Amino acid sequence: MVDGLPLEEKLFPEYLKELGYATHLVGKWHLGHARRLYTPTFRGFDSHYGNWLGKQDHYSHFNKENLWNGYDLRRNMEVDYDGFGNYTTKLYTSEAIRLIENHQTESPLFLMINHIVAHTGNTDEPLQAPRKNTKKFSNSIRFIPRRIYAGMVDALDESVGKVIKALEKAGMLDNTIIVFTSDNGGSPEGHGDTYGSNWPLRGVKNSLWEGGTRVAGFIWSKLLPQRVSMDLMHVQDWLPTLYEAAGGYISNLLGIDGVSQWKTFEEGIPARTEFLYNIDDVYNNSAFRSGPWKVLQGNASNLDLGGTELWDSWYGPSGRSKRNSVHDLIPKIIKSTAGRALSRAGVIFNEAKMKIQQTEAEVKCKKPKESTKCDPYNTPCLFNIAKDPCEYNNLASEEPAILLKLLSVINEMNRTALEPLDLYNHPEADPQLWNNTWTNWKDYD
Known about the structure:
alpha+beta; five-stranded mixed beta sheet; four-stranded antiparallel beta sheet; 11 helices; 25% helix; globular
């Protein structure tokens, strides 16, 4: 049985420590905790305030896993009971601000804030948000679960503003890189008890459709030009990209699959033309992208995996209306907490340019009168993502040579793939045995 992410894997904060960075993690870890060596402060972070597992009640901080239930809020290795009853997003925001205010700017800072919101909590009350946040949507969102979900996202939005304000107040924005992104697509219309939207893309979280894998990514710095990028990027590229931006030499990064996108951000030079979505022996699926082409095969829906619903279609809502435009949000963005902080730091907002960038960033799909059926569980599917980002038209029968070429790449990659780690709930990890807390049960003392 594995104890966590293997220790031979060198993590980003460990590389940054070699460059003289102070490194701090606020929020979710979820990379293993059976032994202390697998926890954040032994994996390159100077400090950690947050949760070790993947979800929790946003007020009590108890996490239910099957029949087990335990408290999960830590300051480094110590359990933080003082956080009980306080909203998770508020706690993590306060900690991030504290770290910024106390940082000695003689050394560079890496601050990673892994908010749990808008992830669901426990199944008995999956959606939780402060009343002041949900109240904002009383007139605009009638469906209560989605209104609460909007309140969760609104609390996250407030957090971003407060963190940027703290950076501005500390005089750090002139030499800061801010990255805002997600680890996967959303769960819409009640999938996983949440009410997000991947519109107009196909699929949901835990699938290899674009809706489950393609997320909005935002990077801001005074060091970078303002533009919308449609260049290919994989999550594994963040390490070499930010390592290069921090002054590291890419030649020092051995045995990694990611490529640096820093020149792409600076000059618009594409860094990659292909990437592997995944080869998953547990879910029994795989997908690969080369240029405009994407091949998808194996289990592609919840139904294939023993669930009760399909979840491989197209889900909304779009967030658009005939009465309002996304352009109407621009004055609110400029006057927001983050907007005002950026203005004080010398950032000049160009509303006309912002409207153009909003339009450029929108994924547009024209639904055909008849789409070509795709059943990857039985036969691999092929899509031209550049022309058909919403995966309406399966071109496998029209482009057999391209299909075979991409499948051969997956097969070749699979030859060198490692066996999946052995994960299961060990009875000795039961929080009831450890004062009702999730802990490093293999070497607890």
